[in-house]
Amino acid sequence: MKDLVENRSRLGFGKKLSLARQAVKENGFLWTGLMGIYYLCSGVAEKAFGRAAARRERLGLPGMNSVALNKEIWESWDWGAAGDEWSPSPEWKASLVRNILEKYVPDGGRVVEIGPGGGRWTEYLQKRAAKLTGIDLSQACVDACAKRFAGCDNVEFYTNSGCDLPRIDDRSLDAIWSFDVFVHINRAEVEKYAAEFARALKPGGVGVIHHGNVGGKRGGWRSDMTDTAMREVLEAAGLQVDAQIDHWVDGGTEHEIGLYDDSVTVFRKPGA
Ligand SMILES: C[S@@+](CC[C@H](N)C(=O)[O-])C[C@H]1O[C@@H](n2cnc3c(N)ncnc32)[C@H](O)[C@@H]1O
Questions:
Q1: CATH code, domain with 140
Q2: Which tens digit of pLDDT belongs to each residue from 225-260?
Q3: How do beta strands 173-178 and 201-211 pair?
Q4: What's this model's pTM, rounded to 2 decimal places?
Q5: What is the extent of the structural domain holding 40?
Q6: Could you give the percent of the chain with pLDDT greater than 90?
Q7: Which of 54, 83, 128, 197 could form a disulfide with 118 if both were Cys (CB 3.0 to 4.6 A apart)?
Q8: Is ligand 1 within 6 A of the CB of residue 136?
Q9: For residue 136, what is the enclosing H or E element?
Q10: In angstroms, what is the span from residue 181 Cα to ligand 1's centroid?
Q11: 73 lines ligand 1 (CB under 6 A)
Q12: Which pLDDT score is estimated for 1?
Protein backbone atom coordinates (compact mmCIF):
# COMPACT_ATOMS: atom_id res chain seq x y z
CA MET A 1 0.00 0.00 0.00
CA LYS A 2 2.84 2.37 0.88
CA ASP A 3 4.37 1.72 -2.58
CA LEU A 4 1.06 2.57 -4.24
CA VAL A 5 0.87 5.85 -2.31
CA GLU A 6 4.46 6.74 -3.19
CA ASN A 7 3.81 5.95 -6.87
CA ARG A 8 1.02 8.58 -6.89
CA SER A 9 3.42 11.44 -7.65
CA ARG A 10 4.56 9.67 -10.83
CA LEU A 11 1.02 9.46 -12.29
CA GLY A 12 -0.42 12.25 -14.46
CA PHE A 13 -4.08 13.33 -14.13
CA GLY A 14 -5.17 11.35 -17.22
CA LYS A 15 -3.59 8.19 -15.90
CA LYS A 16 -5.23 8.67 -12.49
CA LEU A 17 -8.63 9.11 -14.19
CA SER A 18 -8.24 5.95 -16.22
CA LEU A 19 -7.15 4.01 -13.09
CA ALA A 20 -10.22 5.36 -11.24
CA ARG A 21 -12.52 4.29 -14.12
CA GLN A 22 -11.05 0.80 -14.11
CA ALA A 23 -11.33 0.62 -10.29
CA VAL A 24 -15.04 1.63 -10.43
CA LYS A 25 -15.68 -0.99 -13.12
CA GLU A 26 -14.09 -3.73 -11.01
CA ASN A 27 -14.99 -2.63 -7.42
CA GLY A 28 -17.97 -0.28 -7.58
CA PHE A 29 -18.39 3.41 -6.60
CA LEU A 30 -18.38 3.02 -2.83
CA TRP A 31 -15.11 1.09 -2.58
CA THR A 32 -13.44 3.38 -5.13
CA GLY A 33 -14.72 6.50 -3.32
CA LEU A 34 -13.37 5.27 0.00
CA MET A 35 -9.99 4.51 -1.53
CA GLY A 36 -10.02 7.94 -3.19
CA ILE A 37 -10.48 9.55 0.24
CA TYR A 38 -7.59 7.46 1.56
CA TYR A 39 -5.22 8.57 -1.22
CA LEU A 40 -6.27 12.22 -0.93
CA CYS A 41 -5.90 12.30 2.87
CA SER A 42 -2.55 10.51 2.85
CA GLY A 43 -1.28 13.06 0.30
CA VAL A 44 -2.45 15.94 2.52
CA ALA A 45 -0.90 14.25 5.58
CA GLU A 46 2.48 13.88 3.85
CA LYS A 47 2.45 17.54 2.77
CA ALA A 48 1.55 18.65 6.31
CA PHE A 49 4.38 16.54 7.77
CA GLY A 50 6.88 17.98 5.28
CA ARG A 51 5.81 21.57 6.08
CA ALA A 52 5.96 20.93 9.84
CA ALA A 53 9.44 19.38 9.53
CA ALA A 54 10.71 22.34 7.48
CA ARG A 55 9.26 24.82 9.99
CA ARG A 56 10.79 22.91 12.87
CA GLU A 57 14.21 23.05 11.22
CA ARG A 58 13.94 26.73 10.26
CA LEU A 59 12.81 27.91 13.72
CA GLY A 60 14.74 25.33 15.79
CA LEU A 61 11.52 23.98 17.34
CA PRO A 62 11.72 20.90 19.60
CA GLY A 63 8.88 19.14 17.74
CA MET A 64 7.56 16.15 19.71
CA ASN A 65 11.00 15.57 21.27
CA SER A 66 11.27 17.98 24.21
CA VAL A 67 11.99 16.54 27.66
CA ALA A 68 8.55 17.65 28.87
CA LEU A 69 6.68 15.93 26.00
CA ASN A 70 8.77 12.76 26.31
CA LYS A 71 7.93 12.64 30.00
CA GLU A 72 4.19 13.08 29.35
CA ILE A 73 4.16 10.42 26.67
CA TRP A 74 6.16 7.74 28.47
CA GLU A 75 4.47 8.22 31.84
CA SER A 76 1.18 7.22 30.23
CA TRP A 77 2.46 4.44 27.91
CA ASP A 78 0.99 0.96 28.33
CA TRP A 79 4.09 -1.09 29.25
CA GLY A 80 2.15 -4.39 29.06
CA ALA A 81 4.21 -5.60 26.07
CA ALA A 82 7.47 -4.47 27.80
CA GLY A 83 8.67 -2.69 24.65
CA ASP A 84 8.55 -5.77 22.43
CA GLU A 85 5.91 -4.02 20.31
CA TRP A 86 8.94 -2.26 18.73
CA SER A 87 10.85 -5.46 17.91
CA PRO A 88 10.15 -6.35 14.25
CA SER A 89 10.55 -10.07 15.09
CA PRO A 90 11.98 -12.33 17.81
CA GLU A 91 14.76 -13.24 15.32
CA TRP A 92 15.71 -9.56 14.85
CA LYS A 93 15.85 -9.03 18.61
CA ALA A 94 17.94 -12.17 19.28
CA SER A 95 20.30 -11.23 16.46
CA LEU A 96 20.67 -7.65 17.74
CA VAL A 97 21.52 -9.00 21.21
CA ARG A 98 24.21 -11.29 19.71
CA ASN A 99 25.62 -8.89 17.14
CA ILE A 100 25.40 -5.51 18.88
CA LEU A 101 24.73 -5.83 22.61
CA GLU A 102 27.02 -8.79 23.33
CA LYS A 103 29.62 -7.56 20.85
CA TYR A 104 30.11 -4.15 22.47
CA VAL A 105 28.90 -4.34 26.09
CA PRO A 106 31.66 -6.14 28.01
CA ASP A 107 30.85 -9.12 30.22
CA GLY A 108 30.98 -8.54 33.99
CA GLY A 109 31.12 -4.74 33.80
CA ARG A 110 29.55 -1.77 35.55
CA VAL A 111 26.80 -0.72 33.13
CA VAL A 112 24.20 2.05 32.82
CA GLU A 113 21.14 1.68 30.60
CA ILE A 114 19.45 4.97 29.69
CA GLY A 115 15.68 4.67 29.16
CA PRO A 116 15.05 0.99 29.98
CA GLY A 117 11.29 1.46 29.44
CA GLY A 118 9.66 -1.92 30.10
CA GLY A 119 13.02 -3.73 30.27
CA ARG A 120 13.27 -5.06 26.67
CA TRP A 121 17.11 -4.93 26.72
CA THR A 122 17.50 -4.83 30.52
CA GLU A 123 16.82 -8.56 30.58
CA TYR A 124 20.06 -9.21 28.67
CA LEU A 125 22.13 -6.43 30.25
CA GLN A 126 21.22 -7.64 33.76
CA LYS A 127 22.57 -11.12 33.00
CA ARG A 128 25.73 -9.68 31.50
CA ALA A 129 26.63 -6.89 33.94
CA ALA A 130 28.21 -7.15 37.36
CA LYS A 131 26.05 -4.16 38.24
CA LEU A 132 23.39 -2.48 36.10
CA THR A 133 21.70 0.87 36.72
CA GLY A 134 18.62 1.76 34.65
CA ILE A 135 18.01 5.52 34.46
CA ASP A 136 14.77 6.74 32.92
CA LEU A 137 12.94 10.03 32.59
CA SER A 138 9.68 8.30 33.48
CA GLN A 139 8.68 7.05 36.92
CA ALA A 140 6.27 4.59 35.22
CA CYS A 141 9.26 2.88 33.54
CA VAL A 142 11.25 2.78 36.76
CA ASP A 143 8.28 1.19 38.53
CA ALA A 144 7.75 -1.35 35.71
CA CYS A 145 11.43 -2.36 35.72
CA ALA A 146 11.68 -2.45 39.53
CA LYS A 147 8.74 -4.89 39.53
CA ARG A 148 10.02 -6.99 36.62
CA PHE A 149 13.57 -7.35 38.01
CA ALA A 150 12.66 -7.47 41.71
CA GLY A 151 14.44 -10.82 42.12
CA CYS A 152 17.79 -9.56 40.74
CA ASP A 153 20.30 -8.20 43.24
CA ASN A 154 22.63 -6.53 40.69
CA VAL A 155 20.13 -3.95 39.36
CA GLU A 156 18.72 -0.60 40.44
CA PHE A 157 16.42 1.84 38.70
CA TYR A 158 15.74 5.54 39.20
CA THR A 159 14.64 8.64 37.35
CA ASN A 160 16.65 11.55 35.98
CA SER A 161 16.05 15.01 34.55
CA GLY A 162 16.22 13.83 30.94
CA CYS A 163 19.87 14.72 30.30
CA ASP A 164 22.03 13.55 33.23
CA LEU A 165 23.40 10.48 35.01
CA PRO A 166 22.70 11.24 38.68
CA ARG A 167 24.42 9.18 41.41
CA ILE A 168 26.92 7.75 38.91
CA ASP A 169 30.51 8.36 39.99
CA ASP A 170 33.14 9.89 37.71
CA ARG A 171 35.18 7.34 35.70
CA SER A 172 33.10 4.42 37.07
CA LEU A 173 31.35 2.87 34.04
CA ASP A 174 32.53 0.15 31.67
CA ALA A 175 29.56 0.65 29.35
CA ILE A 176 26.51 2.79 28.60
CA TRP A 177 23.66 1.26 26.55
CA SER A 178 20.58 2.98 25.18
CA PHE A 179 18.17 1.67 22.53
CA ASP A 180 15.03 3.38 21.17
CA VAL A 181 15.57 6.36 23.48
CA PHE A 182 17.94 8.83 21.78
CA VAL A 183 15.78 8.51 18.65
CA HIS A 184 13.42 10.78 20.65
CA ILE A 185 16.03 13.13 22.18
CA ASN A 186 17.06 16.40 20.52
CA ARG A 187 20.63 17.62 20.09
CA ALA A 188 20.37 20.14 22.95
CA GLU A 189 19.84 17.29 25.46
CA VAL A 190 22.24 14.92 23.66
CA GLU A 191 25.01 17.49 24.21
CA LYS A 192 24.33 17.44 27.97
CA TYR A 193 24.29 13.63 27.98
CA ALA A 194 27.60 13.54 26.06
CA ALA A 195 29.28 15.60 28.81
CA GLU A 196 27.90 13.07 31.31
CA PHE A 197 29.23 10.13 29.23
CA ALA A 198 32.70 11.71 29.21
CA ARG A 199 32.52 12.24 32.97
CA ALA A 200 31.13 8.83 33.98
CA LEU A 201 32.92 6.38 31.64
CA LYS A 202 36.21 4.82 32.70
CA PRO A 203 39.04 5.43 30.23
CA GLY A 204 38.40 2.77 27.57
CA GLY A 205 34.73 2.52 28.59
CA VAL A 206 32.26 2.12 25.71
CA GLY A 207 28.93 3.67 24.77
CA VAL A 208 26.32 2.10 22.47
CA ILE A 209 23.58 4.56 21.54
CA HIS A 210 20.72 4.03 19.06
CA HIS A 211 19.57 7.31 17.47
CA GLY A 212 17.88 8.80 14.42
CA ASN A 213 19.74 9.79 11.27
CA VAL A 214 17.33 11.93 9.23
CA GLY A 215 17.00 14.99 11.46
CA GLY A 216 13.30 14.39 12.10
CA LYS A 217 12.46 14.69 8.37
CA ARG A 218 10.64 11.34 8.19
CA GLY A 219 8.13 9.62 10.45
CA GLY A 220 8.77 7.65 13.61
CA TRP A 221 8.61 10.77 15.78
CA ARG A 222 12.37 11.11 15.44
CA SER A 223 14.47 13.90 16.98
CA ASP A 224 16.68 16.37 15.10
CA MET A 225 19.73 14.05 15.30
CA THR A 226 21.79 12.59 12.44
CA ASP A 227 24.93 10.41 12.29
CA THR A 228 27.02 13.54 11.64
CA ALA A 229 25.46 15.43 14.55
CA MET A 230 26.03 12.49 16.91
CA ARG A 231 29.68 12.25 15.87
CA GLU A 232 30.16 16.04 16.31
CA VAL A 233 28.54 16.05 19.76
CA LEU A 234 30.53 13.05 21.04
CA GLU A 235 33.85 14.30 19.65
CA ALA A 236 33.25 17.76 21.12
CA ALA A 237 32.89 16.02 24.51
CA GLY A 238 36.29 14.30 24.01
CA LEU A 239 34.88 10.87 23.07
CA GLN A 240 36.06 8.76 20.15
CA VAL A 241 33.57 7.30 17.67
CA ASP A 242 34.43 3.67 16.79
CA ALA A 243 31.49 2.77 14.52
CA GLN A 244 28.15 3.94 13.15
CA ILE A 245 25.95 1.00 12.22
CA ASP A 246 22.67 1.09 10.27
CA HIS A 247 22.40 -2.63 9.52
CA TRP A 248 24.14 -5.92 10.16
CA VAL A 249 24.22 -9.32 8.49
CA ASP A 250 23.65 -12.50 10.48
CA GLY A 251 23.69 -15.93 8.83
CA GLY A 252 22.93 -14.44 5.41
CA THR A 253 20.04 -12.28 6.70
CA GLU A 254 20.37 -8.50 6.60
CA HIS A 255 18.79 -6.67 9.56
CA GLU A 256 18.05 -2.95 9.79
CA ILE A 257 18.76 -1.17 13.08
CA GLY A 258 15.43 0.68 12.94
CA LEU A 259 12.43 1.38 10.75
CA TYR A 260 13.36 5.00 10.01
CA ASP A 261 16.98 4.88 8.79
CA ASP A 262 18.22 4.84 12.38
CA SER A 263 21.80 4.14 13.46
CA VAL A 264 23.73 2.86 16.44
CA THR A 265 26.83 4.87 17.30
CA VAL A 266 29.53 3.03 19.24
CA PHE A 267 32.02 5.29 21.01
CA ARG A 268 34.78 5.08 23.56
CA LYS A 269 36.41 7.29 26.15
CA PRO A 270 40.06 7.45 25.08
CA GLY A 271 42.94 6.72 27.39
CA ALA A 272 42.68 3.09 28.53
C1 LIG B 1 10.51 3.96 23.06
S2 LIG B 1 10.81 3.74 24.77
C3 LIG B 1 12.13 2.55 24.69
C4 LIG B 1 12.26 1.72 25.92
C5 LIG B 1 13.35 0.63 25.85
N6 LIG B 1 14.66 1.21 25.74
C7 LIG B 1 13.07 -0.28 24.70
O8 LIG B 1 13.86 -0.27 23.73
O9 LIG B 1 12.08 -1.01 24.74
C10 LIG B 1 11.63 5.25 25.22
C11 LIG B 1 12.15 5.25 26.63
O12 LIG B 1 13.03 6.35 26.78
C13 LIG B 1 12.72 7.08 27.95
N14 LIG B 1 13.16 8.46 27.72
C15 LIG B 1 12.68 9.35 26.82
N16 LIG B 1 13.39 10.48 26.86
C17 LIG B 1 14.35 10.30 27.80
C18 LIG B 1 15.41 11.12 28.29
N19 LIG B 1 15.60 12.35 27.82
N20 LIG B 1 16.22 10.60 29.24
C21 LIG B 1 16.00 9.36 29.75
N22 LIG B 1 15.01 8.53 29.33
C23 LIG B 1 14.20 9.01 28.36
C24 LIG B 1 11.21 6.89 28.08
O25 LIG B 1 10.74 7.18 29.37
C26 LIG B 1 11.08 5.42 27.69
O27 LIG B 1 11.36 4.56 28.76
A1: 3.40.50.150
A2: 999 999 999 999 999 999 999 999 999 999 999 888
A3: parallel
A4: 0.91
A5: 2-59
A6: 87
A7: 83
A8: yes
A9: strand 131-136
A10: 4
A11: no
A12: 45
